[in-house]
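Researcher: Next sequence.
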Amino acid sequence: MKQAAIILALLIFPASLQAAQPAAAPAKPIVGQHDNNAPIDISSDSFQADLNGKTGTWTGNVIVIQGDTKLRANSVRMSTVNGKADKIMASGNVVVDSPKSGTATGDNGVYSVAPRTVLLTGNVVLKKGKNVMQGAQLTVNLVTGQAVLVGGVKGQAPGSSRVNSVFTPNSQ
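Model: Next structure:
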C-alpha cells in the first residue's frame, strides 16, 4: 500500500488549497517529506479562466512541479466554490513522479479538496523500483492514509476485476 501513497503527489497544486481546509487537526502526510508549502510551478501550452463557471484550465503538455514532485497531464482543471478550491482534475496521460514514492500513471486523476481524497482512474499503474501494481481505480484518503486499488487491468479477460501486483524482494 505504500506504493499507493504516490498519489499524494496530486497535492502539488496550489498550497493555498491547504489553507482552504476547514480548521481541524492537521493530517499527517502519507509521503513523508513532501513540502506542501514549496513554490508551485505550472506550465502549459495555454490557460483559460471561466469566471462564470469559476474554473481555470491549463491545457497542452501541462507540467506541475512542487519540490521534487512532478505531475504531467494533457489537461488540468481547477473548480472553486465560494472562492476556495473544490476539485482539481487532471486528465489525459496523467503521470505523477516522486523520487521518494515512485511513479503513478492513469488516464484521469481527481483531488477533492474538502474531504482530502484522491481518485486515479483508467489503467492505473504504480511503480517503485521493480515493484509494480496495476488496477483500474485507486482511491486514497489523505486524512486516514488508507488507499484502495481495485481491479480491471487492461488486457485482462472482460469482466475480470483483479488487481495485479509484482513485488521483487530486496528491491528499493
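Model: The chain has one domain: 2-166. The longest strand covers residues 84-98.
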